[in-house]
Design brief:
Length: about 240
């Protein structure tokens, strides 16, 4: 199996909702050997094949459609690996670039504890749903973004929904392309440690937390919110 590039960076900006983490990370040949030893890495074959009669596909199964410097922690390990990565939201895998050919490889989400994506405007913290409790069971081990931590943890599960081309039926919408669309599913962790799915609306929040009705009504209104995610984070800090 070919070796894997470890791209270290000495400085990363930290802004946004999550504080910068001071983490140790593995680099060099030893790091590559360790990664191959502790986790199964396989070539990335892509999510789906498409009939060439179609006009193609819009979008991709990937979250960013580019490789971004990322620190990720393998389950059972103590130090982070720092590499160029992306997420495949259909296959639920972490994508990494192979060192010599640039071939994209993948690691299943089952092997990932957490990852920190280092963007120019800040850091994004992701974990996986394995071991977490949800109001409705999530069948696959998906990645989720931690929007805010604390007693009422607020998270977002990004999902790429796939829509097939539809133009062969008599009364079809004449859509001649397949398409991946990004959909965000939001959850808030209650006092019972269960994540409850919510919409970014006052009605949904009150239904989930009826005992916080007055607080929600006086501090959140999706109709006037310019950034509902940020407003909900502010609200949760008052719970």
């Amino acid at each position: 199996m070919k070796s894997i590039t470890i791209l270290g960076i000495l400085f990363m900006c930290s802004t946004g909702l999550l504080a910068q983490k001071s983490i140790g990370y593995q680099a060099g040949v030893t790091s590559e050997q360790n990664l191959k030893t502790v986790v199964n890495i396989s070539p990335y074959a892509g999510a789906l094949g498409f009939d060439n009669r179609y006009m193609g596909v819009k979008g991709t199964p990937r979250l960013f459609d580019t490789l971004i410097t990322t620190s990720f922690l393998i389950s059972g390990e103590k130090k982070y690996y720092r590499m160029l990565c992306d997420l495949d939201l259909v296959r639920n895998t972490l994508l990494i670039a192979e060192s010599t050919s640039g071939e994209v490889m993948e690691i299943k989400s089952d092997h990932i504890e957490e990852l920190i994506i280092h963007k120019d405007d800040g850091e994004l913290l992701f974990k996986t749903t394995a071991g977490a409790r949800f109001d409705k069971e999530i069948q696959e081990n998906k990645f989720y973004e931690v929007l805010t931590e604390g007693p009422y943890q607020f998270i977002k599960i990004p999902v790429k929904e796939f829509y097939e081309a539809d133009y062969q039926r008599v009364y079809s919408p004449d859509r001649r392309y397949d398409e991946f669309k990004l959909v965000s599913r939001y959850y808030i962790q209650g006092p019972d440690s269960v994540f409850y799915r919510v919409q970014l609306t006052r009605k949904s929040l009150i239904k989930t937390f009826p005992d916080k009705k007055e607080l929600i009504e006086s501090n959140f209104n999706e109709k006037t919110a310019s950034d509902p995610e940020a407003d909900i984070i502010t609200l949760l800090n008052k719970f």
